[in-house]
Amino acid sequence: MTFDISNLRIALESMGFHLYDDEYDKFFTYCMMLLEKNKVMNLTAITDIDEVILKHFVDSVMLHKALDPKEITTMIDVGTGAGFPGIPLKIVYENLNVILLDSLQKRLEFLDDVIDELRLTGIETVHARAEDAGQAEVLRERFDLCVSRAVANLSTLSELCLPFVKEGGHFVAYKAGKVEDEVDAARHAIELLGGGNIEVINFTLPKSDLERSLIRIEKINKTPSKYPRKAGRPSKEPLE
After folding, report:
1. Which of 20, 89, 164, 183 has the most C-beta neighbours closer than 10 Å?
2. How far apart are CA 143 and CA 161, in angstroms?
3. To which H or E segment does residue 174 belong?
4. Tally of domains within the chain
């Protein structure tokens, strides 16, 4: 398999992105490091290079459909896993100051290697469960934006993510397919957590029929101090 830079370039340029060659080089290096590390560690089920480009890289930078990342200063990526969407967003938007949060130290060690190899600045990893980090004074309600591609229902994700967002900021959840029913089921929980003004942006990834959704939630009130609850409870007992 070879990394065809033209596939990434065509997809990004179709959305109005015009990157420098060194930025494309960073995507190439990231892809090669991801697939090499994936041989010994479970980072992604997607191992075809063209699918990595579309389903990880392009999908990650679709954030612009929900808001303008150029107007964001501080961002936290909760449950970042192999670095999505945080690292692709950092490559494209140098203005972002990014925290990559994950509960698995080995994943973060890989991401630290990626950050060093790509010579990225203004980005760091934090090892913690979201439930614990969301109660930490240095992280709680400190960010303009929280993003997450983690697999969890919206009620659970909102409890894990909204505590990080300052009033007037936003939480954006990345989802596959249509999500209107999931949003309706989570509305009360979102309100409890200080969120509101929910907007769903549906789209298909460029040159594909893959349906995706971004759920943008504004932080309109402070999150009550009892949230997030102790580790495990948001997923086992989602707020209703």
Report:
1. 164
2. 10
3. strand 165-176
4. 1
Q: What's the confidence (pLDDT) of residue 2?
A: 66
Let me know: does 118 contact 30? Beta carbons within 8 Å: yes
In eight-state DSSP terms, residue 141 is T
Residue 106 falls inside a structural domain: yes
Whose tokens are 């939630």? That residue is: 217
Quote the CA–CA distance of 115 and 230 in Å, as a whole number: 31
Q: Is residue 224 part of a domain?
A: yes
Can you name the residues that pair with 100 across neighbouring β-strands?
A: 77, 125
Domain-embedded: residue 161: yes
When pLDDT is averaged across residues 192-221 and rounded to a whole number, the result is 95
3-state secondary structure of 29: helix
Asked whether residue 152 is assigned to any structural domain, the reply reads yes
pLDDT at residue 219 is higher than 70: yes
If DSSP codes are grouped into helix, strand and coil, which group holds residue 203? strand
Place of tokens 């990080």: 164
Q: What is the CATH number of the domain that holds 148?
A: 3.40.50.150
Domain span at residue 221? 66-236
pTM score, two decimals? 0.95
Pairing of strands 74-78, 143-148: parallel
